[in-house]
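Students often ask what a holo structure prediction actually looks like on paper. The answer is less mysterious than it sounds. You provide the chain, you provide the ligand, and the output is a string of discrete structure tokens encoding the 3D arrangement of the protein together with pyridoxal-5'-phosphate.
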Amino acid sequence: MSDLLQGITPTMLMGPGPSCVPDAVYKALAKPTIGHLDPYFVRIMDAIKEQLREVFHTQNALTMPMSGTGSSGMETCFVNLVEPGDKVLVLTNGVFGKRMQDVAGRLGAEVDALEITWGEPVLPDAVKAKLESQKYDIVGIVHAETSTGVCSPVDAIGKMVRDHGALLIMDCVTSLGGIPVDVDGWFVDAAYSGTQKCLSCPPGLSPITFGERALAKLKARKNKVPNWYLDLSLIASYWEGTTRTYHHTAPVNMEYALYAALKEILDEGQEKVFARHNAMHERLVSGLAALGMEMLVAKEYRLPMLNAVRIPDGVDEAAIRARLLKEFAIEIGSGLGPLAGKIWRIGIMGHTARPENIDRLLETLKKVL
Ligand SMILES: *Cc1c(COP(=O)(O)O)cnc(C)c1O
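The corresponding structure tokens follow.
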């Protein structure tokens, strides 16, 4: 029988995720599988919780990876915190805000959205007006909108949400490990991320963190969390405490990989990692400008790790992407929704953010355009 796996060759992953995976993480995946309740595995779980507190910048006890991709973290935040009839405000400026609206709506929340033009940030003044117009129980915001390359100033919004008595859920799937994320300093009550963006791990886990106010709302629920698998009050008995009891079988080798990926970041030093992302972003933007290409997002709101570049006139964007992948083993992303056909999304996330990778993409683009 032929083996399809023999046909897999390395691709330089410069799209919206997954990103390039360092060797240390591949090696971690190949370590022997041990039991999900083996005391040695419990030590690894505890270490991961510590590592995650460092990258999330939080003291939250309930900080751990959910077994599922980034969207499972989103679902976890909403399913545990939303009760039917709750008023949820989503600050939407791209695909992932839209997804939050959908998730909250399915839980019977009264969902309201502050809709912002895709490519622009969520700004504090607009949020303030919305918060003053009525009382909300929960507010959702996407720190780094991967669909547009925009960074929204959660640091200037979190306190305002708290002062208005709502809980803040933050999506930091793309930002975590690439730019500063400060869960405690920004008054974020619940946050989630994913492994395959700036953490440079394969997709499969979703780190989350819940603060005390979020846990109080969970405890005070009138009805059970409507999803057994994501119910944090049950999962905590596996991830916390001195006696760990079975909830589900953790994806053991993926946890090794996450441990190794976080170790890479913490060993390099978070400040250095952020500086590397910024430097690579500048290298990319000036190289693209030299090719006559322009960015979608205003300079001050650009994400370093996700670059939305306008497609030059007369260029068949899908054909170029297909050539990059087929002939040069480089993957970049297309535009979504209203930005389909208008932009490419060039990701320089985590391990991908290296000068040789930026230069290889720029040289190749020059050739194919
Ligand atoms: C990728 C992404 C998600 C969803 O993560 P999946 O791993 O695809 O489920 C959510 N939010 C943002 C901002 C993302 O970039």
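The longest helix spans residues 270-290.
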